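Quick review question:
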């Protein structure tokens, strides 16, 4: 018997394969989300699943459990995602949940704490001792997802383009602008427009690394954006504390650890919160859960 666990976000999908003999294989492929109700979203999911299948090679996968951003078991797109997974893996048992709910189980026992996940987007999660999961935030980059990688990337681009409006060349001559130009492969509105409007949420989210690059050079604007991201993430923790009582908060996700200024901004905004930044492995948790089902 073998099991596959997926932890899929907009920027990357991490996977773990394991069997009852203790063999483990893991890797990372292109990210995708539960937004499979558009042709583009479905194509990204199919591409990621094909990468995993090719990496694992031939062989039976008995069961799959996937934590996927932008998805929940009750979502209309959930059966579509299950069918896509079944097309690529000969698994007789497939289960899914949101990536935030999966990350919570990797960080806490039920009812033990609150989780804030910052990847391409952002979400707050609490799971009660009775197993009831509550999500706050996580409504996508159009409505919110403040503090996540996409939000960070857009804040930096907005600042640069407004400077370009004020005086052409000013925005891209700053450390932040030069960092974006290096990541984009050029500068100017045509380059930015193509990257933002022809890209997906994952590719835009990866541009947050330009803000990190500039912050590493002590660029004031970049540091302000990252601290503000941390403050936005602290809001999610504050909401959970208000609704379910004060508990330890775990700040996790690839975006949350990009630069120390993010945690600094969180702590400055909410010094009363008991914050930790644990190193969790949701894909392994998903694989172990899947294996326990067979």
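Suggested answer, residue by residue:
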């Amino acid at each position: 018997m073998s099991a596959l666990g997926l932890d899929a976000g907009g920027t990357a999908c991490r996977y773990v394969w394991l069997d009852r003999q203790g063999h483990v294989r893991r890797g990372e492929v292109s990210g995708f989300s539960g937004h499979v109700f558009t042709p583009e979203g479905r194509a990204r999911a199919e591409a990621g699943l094909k990468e995993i299948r090719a990496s694992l090679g031939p062989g039976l996968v008995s069961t799959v459990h996937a934590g996927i951003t932008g998805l929940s078991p009750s979502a209309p797109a959930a059966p579509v995602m299950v069918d896509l997974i079944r097309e690529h893996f000969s698994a007789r048992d497939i289960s899914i949940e949101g990536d935030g709910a999966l990350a919570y189980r990797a960080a806490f026992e039920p009812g033990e704490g609150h989780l804030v996940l910052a990847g391409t987007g952002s979400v707050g999660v609490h799971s009660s001792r009775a197993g009831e999961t509550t999500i706050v935030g996580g409504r996508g980059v159009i409505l919110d997802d403040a503090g996540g990688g996409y939000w960070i990337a857009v804040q930096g681009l907005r600042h640069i383009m407004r400077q370009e409006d004020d005086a052409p060349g000013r925005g891209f001559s700053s450390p932040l602008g030069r960092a974006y130009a290096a990541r984009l492969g050029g500068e100017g509105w045509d380059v930015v427009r193509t990257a933002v409007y022809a890209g997906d949420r994952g590719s835009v989210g990866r541009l947050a690394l330009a803000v990190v690059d500039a912050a590493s050079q002590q660029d004031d604007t970049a540091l302000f954006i990252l601290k503000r991201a941390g403050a936005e993430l602290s809001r999610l923790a504050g909401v959970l504390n208000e609704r379910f009582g004060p508990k330890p908060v775990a700040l996790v996700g690839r975006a949350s650890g990009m630069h120390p200024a993010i945690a600094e901004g969180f702590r400055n905004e909410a010094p009363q919160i008991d914050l930790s930044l644990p190193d969790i492995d949701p894909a392994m948790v998903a694989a172990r859960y899947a294996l326990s089902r067979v």
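Why it works: The longest helix spans residues 220-244. The chain has a mean pLDDT of 95.
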